[in-house]
Every structure is written in structure tokens, then in C-alpha cells.
Automatic annotation (TrEMBL):
CDD domains documented for this protein: ABC_Iron-Siderophores_B12_Hemin (cd03214)
Pfam families, alphabetized: ABC_tran (PF00005)
InterPro entries assigned to the protein according to its UniProt record, in alphabetical order: AAA+_ATPase, ABC_transporter-like_ATP-bd, P-loop_NTPase
Signal sequence bounds: none
Keywords associated with the record: ATP-binding, Nucleotide-binding
Protein name: ABC transporter domain-containing protein
Domain ABC transporter per the UniProt entry, residue ranges: 2-232
An MF annotation (GO) of this entry: ATP hydrolysis activity
Amino acid sequence: MLTIENGSLKGVTRPRLNNITLSIDSGKLVGLIGPNGAGKSSLLKAIAGIEPASGRFSWNQQLLSAMKDTERANTLSYMAQDDIPQWDMTMADIIDIGLLKRRISRSERQRRIDNVCATLNLSEFNGHSIQRLSRGELQRVLLARALVAEPELLLCDEPTNALDIYHQLNVLQLLKKQSEQGRLVIMAIHDIPQAAEYCDELILLDKGELVCHGQPFEVLTKANLAETFGVHADWICNKRGVAWQPRPL
């Protein structure tokens, strides 16, 4: 279980996070939603320990900030938004970075890299320089780097960004499967219908404040969407999926 108590992060004109308090059980895919500047990336960075946030961030009642490097690496992985490496490395070398703090054999390391590449349709790029990859291909490599550690807590900042619709769905299904295996997966996502369809829970943020946390139908109310996004939305739900028709207020 992830527990956040009074999580706050300073900003220039207002707090990027303001006294966020919530608890999330393992075994769930949780979507972070909200307008631009709502605090989605800031919350992920605060949980991962990348930003110096105040408050308590605990995993199974243990402070994440108190964990040793190896224990922390065994617990969580973080995929940043638009984390484009500026150096020339092979795809496998980039993915292997996700295992730097892992004490595993060379054969186990290679097995994990091969498995995650196959899962994300990356095997054909084995040995390729990342400079030769498209933005969408690189996005999948960065997700593979986070997944290869097989963490208990997986934090992803817009993992479907720059992906075509096929690979968007493939990634969402993969993250859903990760949660079904007992992991907690938290992702920032802009596509509201995809969030409604795939996520077990949603966290709605606005201006660094927690607006609502619950199941999609509890969070995506017309009142919440009007207040945070400034839109009126009509929902379409059937056996083939979820869609919406938003209109500016």
C-alpha cells in the first residue's frame, strides 16, 4: 500500500502540491488526471523522491525516503515524461540502466531484458542505437527500462505519449496486467476515456490540490469535469469501450 500524508511541494507562485493525503492499495492501475499544471508530474516525482517534497510518503508503512538505495530499487521504478537521452547508447544498454541497483545474475539480467523487449515489440531493435529510433519507439524503450526491474510500485508519467493507437492500447493492457499481478501502477494520463476504461481508480488533481480519488464513475462526474477542465461531457459506454463528447462550458 502507498500512503501519502500531507504531501506538499513548493512552486513559484503557488504550491505545486498542497497537502495531498491519500492511500492506494497494491494490485491496482491508478490514473492521475487533471488539466495542465494540475500537479500530476509533481506528484509522481515526489513519490519517487526526485523532488524534495514535504510530508510522508510510505510504502507498506515504511518511509520511502528512509530506504537504502538497493531496497528502493527493489521497490519502485519511475518513468519520466519526455526523458530523451542525449548520449548514444544501444537500446539494450538503456534498458539495462533499470537494473543498475539489482543484485541479479548476468543470465537473469539478459532474460529480463529479452522478455520486456518481446512484450513491448522491441526485439527487432536489439543492438540498435537509440539515435535511430523514432520518438514512439524510444518511448517504449523508456517504459521497458522501468518495467525490467519488476518493481512493486511502478510510476509512469504519460507512458502512452507519442505512441500510435495500437501501441497505446498495448501499453495500457500491459500496465493493467502488471497491476493484476499484484503491483501498484500509477500513471499520468491525458486521455480521459482510456483512463475510464483501463484504470481501477483515478486521482483528479487541480492546481496542486486533490479534487477527488475513487473509481472512475465517482471521479468523472459532470461537476468535477466542469470545475477542473471547464468542459461539459456526455459519456458513451457500451461493450466496445468508453468514449466521451466534451464541449467547452
